Amino acid sequence: MTMNKTRHLVNLALIGFMGTGKSAVGWLVAEQLHFDYLDTDEMIQSRTGRSIADIFEKDGELAFRKLEQQLVEELAARKRTVISTGGGLPTLTANLASLEAHALVVCLWASPEKIWERVRNQTHRPLLSGPNPQLKIRELLAAREPFYRQADVLINTDLRSAREVAQQVIHQFKLAQSGKR
Ligand code: S3P
Predict the structure, then answer these.
(1) C-alpha dist (Å) from residue 80 to 41, 54, 56, 104, 119
(2) CA of 41 to the centre of ligand 1 (A)
(3) pLDDT digits over 94-153, tens only?
(4) How many CB atoms lie within 10 A of CB 15?
(5) Does residue 90's CB lie within 6 angstroms of at least one atom of ligand 1?
(6) 168: number of Cβ within 10 Å
(7) Which of 18, 32, 126, 180 is an S-S bond match for 56, by CB 3.0 to 4.6 Å?
(8) For residue 181, what pLDDT is reported?
(9) Distance, CA 114 to ligand 1 centroid (Å)?
(10) pLDDT at position 90, please?
(11) C-alpha of residue 88 to centroid of ligand 1, in Å
(12) Which pLDDT score is estimated for 4?
């Protein structure tokens, strides 16, 4: 990520593929730092009064991405907030650029096998509701990897509990705030 712009690291943004633990980790981090917690998917659902699956089905993915983008722009006004983002949000370069102005951007990474293990019993994700979700995970993850890699910090969650990942995130955030990263 380019570091030559002025950045005010008052917030912490978690990006990463579905099933990498952004929500679970985000909650723990927010609790320990005494920050607010915000989840972009939850905000979109509460604002529209609709589920993500319904938005995808009736309006299409592009409409959902527009709602995400609008929301990201508003997040610049937040302070002391852990922002957990939907898995596809950083694929729009403008979204990442917007987040990086006010937040340390941490990507939670996992292998396709681990992701499948974590999401296989869940049904709320429209992008994984097709006939071959395992293949879809591999394809989407490969396509998105260059975006995820633009994060300030990348943490592999395959062999770590949410609590362990949260500790790493907090450690990196404190380092970044003290200017040591
Ligand atoms: C998506 C991830 C989901 C949600 C939507 C699309 C994606 O969020 O935003 O279903 O494109 O990867 P989670 O990463 O929280 O599951």
Answers:
(1) 19, 31, 31, 11, 30
(2) 7
(3) 999 999 999 999 999 999 999 999 999 888 899 999 999 999 999 999 999 999 999 999
(4) 30
(5) no
(6) 18
(7) 126
(8) 63
(9) 16
(10) 97
(11) 6
(12) 52
